Amino acid sequence: MPLISMAEIRTGKTLRRLLLLGVSSLVLTTSGVAVAEDWSDIRDNYDQLKRYMAAKRRIGADEKASLIALQERIDAFREGNPEDPRPLAMDIQVSTWLGDDARIDEDYEQLAAISDLDRIQVAWAKHRLGMNGYGSIPGIILSDPVDLADEPEANVLLARSYMARNQFQDAIDAIDAIPEEGLQKPSIRVNANRVRGQAERWLALWQDEVGLREAEEAAGTSPVMQLITSRGPVTILLYETQAPNTVANFIELAERDFFDGTRFHRVEPNFVVQGGDPNSRPGSTIAPGSGGRGQWIPDEADRPDKRFHFAGSLAMAKSPDQTKPGSTIPNSASSQFYVVIEPAENLNEEYTVFGRVIDGIEIIEAIRKNDDLLEVATISRPERDYSAETLAIPGVPEPGTTIPPTGIEGGADKPAEPAPAGG
Predict the structure, then answer these.
(1) Contact of 279 with 291, CB cutoff 8 Å
(2) Which residues of 117-148 are buried (b: 16+ CB within 10 A; e: fewer)?
């Protein structure tokens, strides 16, 4: 294949040449099925696209067409060489550029089936972790025993998947199963110790949390709501006992359709999924992440019975304090809320946890930035008035200030909380 110059990359002629070269390198068999002439030719095509992608750093319509053309060549080669791992490995990168997660998983599954390399399972599990796909990681790692002396990262990934399901003892056991020779690499030892330490600290809190959850289920009186998202429904239970005003705020807004038609404007892999901003609605001229209900609510994270940020917990976002990096403005929660995907120790001090996901955590993990929050529906709740006590401005009220319950005012043009600090 003729080489392509950097000048052509800069002028944009490259994509047209790559498309033509890709098509001309296919031949038709008598059955009409396209097959690749030669692997080295495909590799040349891939290498030149790789250099082009590194230079352009974006994928437009032309880039996408060129990558799809390369995938067609890869597929044709795979038809005649089903046991060859090279096209699968190449297609994983091409599919990554195209953002085709389903195809990446298919490639890894086929690659694992034809290869006995443990690192393929580890790479696949890392991909799933990056996509918040915690539920699939145990199946990937445990489907075929991994030599933990050679691939200790497998059990670090396994432990993190257990943490995302609040299975803290399982996480500790996974780390402890790594032999000493597997911990010789400093970065592995550091990560393993970090995950194990987190699991131990959360396990110490978990027994009390389990007791609270069992009591809530037995009583059957906690408010239950449902987030109707474009990915599917997510059912949440609210902590009315430990965060009564925050729960009142959420129910009040939900039952006034405040959240309907908004979007999840912030998604941080392995951290949070955040929504509740009216500025995230299509057509808004104000940046998502800056909107709220027009008032703010008092923090409840300083209560002695407060709940903690276990995986799947629902909490209120707050405004960062620009004068104190890493801190938030007191009493600056308004309408934006988030769900933590993994347990988050760093959020326990300042953010009010007011509920948890009881069904649909896999939906939360599948949500991507700008997915729709179509509606927040009430499933069941006590028959009483839900009106939150609010503040006209965030911050610490003057001594003796009375905080009255108020209705919704303002909205999309009011500054509010962008995100959990440290996120």
Answers:
(1) yes
(2) ebebbbbbbbbbbebbbbebbbebbeeeebeb
Within 8 A by CB and 6+ apart from 284, the residues are 278, 291, 412
pLDDT class of 397 with cuts at 50, 70, 90: low
C-alpha–C-alpha distance, residues 342 and 162, integer Å: 9
pLDDT tens sequence across 174-207: 999 999 999 999 999 999 999 999 999 999 999 9
CB 386 within 8 A of CB 376: no
Contact between 58 and 38 under an 8 Å Cβ cutoff? The reply is: no
Q: What Rg value do the Cα atoms of the chain yield, rounded?
A: 26
In angstroms, the CA 53 to CA 303 distance is 52
Amino acid at position 383, single letter: E
Q: Above pLDDT 90, what percent of the chain?
A: 76
Domains of the chain, start order: 6-199 (1.25.40), 221-380 (2.40.100.10)
The one-letter amino acid code at 212 reads L
Backbone angles phi, psi at 145, to 5 degrees: -50, 135
Digit-coded pLDDT (tens) for 17-43: 444 344 334 333 333 344 445 899 999
Residues 132/366, Cβ–Cβ less than 8 Å: yes
Q: What DSSP assignment string belongs to 149-181?
A: TT-THHHHHHHHHHHTTT-HHHHHHHHHTS-GG
DSSP string, 354-421: EEEEEE-HHHHHH--TT-EEEEEEEEE--SS----B-BSSSSPPPTT----B------TTS------T
DSSP assignment, residue 133?
Answer: -
pLDDT in tens, 115-144: 889 999 999 999 999 999 999 999 999 988
Question: How far, in Å, CA of 411 to CA of 77, rounded?
Answer: 56
Q: What is the pTM of this model?
A: 0.84
